[in-house]
Design a protein that fits this description.
Layout: H1 16-35, H2 42-52, H3 59-66, H4 70-82, E1 86-90, E2 98-102, H5 104-124, H6 130-146
Helix pairs in contact: 1-5, 2-5, 3-4
Length: about 150
């Protein structure tokens, strides 16, 4: 298979890496602005969503899911706990394990905050068809699988 990028056709502003990063940063800014009403950031919201959807339930699992180090995750969990969105609960089966769970406040605000993310995504995907969105997601999954 031929190389898609070469030294002759490569420019930073047309690099997939640059375009993905730029689009991601712009989406993050939009979501950050809209989540400010909830005293939540985009990065914190990522943790919140993983807890909400059951993708992780310990600090170590969350760090792996979010591709960050344990120290950074602990600091983010401290902030979210301080804001009343989550709490740490020692496992009844194994006292060495500390589970991270959403509080009632977090559960009550979940739909409202998810609507913020849905609205931001729809804004950034304005003009895309459902087929184009499906294709775009397929492209991103293929890139991830190639990594």
């Amino acid at each position: 298979m031929p190389s898609l990028y070469t030294l002759q056709n490569y420019t930073p502003e047309e690099s997939i890496g640059f375009l993905l990063k730029r689009a991601g940063c712009q989406l993050t800014v939009t979501i950050d602005r809209r989540l400010a009403a909830f005293d939540m950031t985009h990065a914190q919201f990522g943790i919140f969503l993983r807890l909400l959807h059951g993708h992780a339930d310990t600090a170590a699992d969350l760090a792996r899911e979010m591709m960050t180090d344990a120290g950074a995750m602990t600091r983010m969990l401290d902030r979210l706990e301080g804001k009343g969105f989550l709490e740490r609960v020692r496992s009844s089966e194994d006292r060495r394990i500390v589970k991270v769970v959403l509080t009632d406040k977090g559960k009550v605000l979940a739909d409202q905050m998810m609507q913020v993310a849905v609205d931001a995504l729809n804004q950034h995907l304005s003009g895309f068809t459902e087929a184009e969105l499906a294709q775009f997601k397929d492209f991103l999954r293929r890139m991830t699988a190639n990594a």
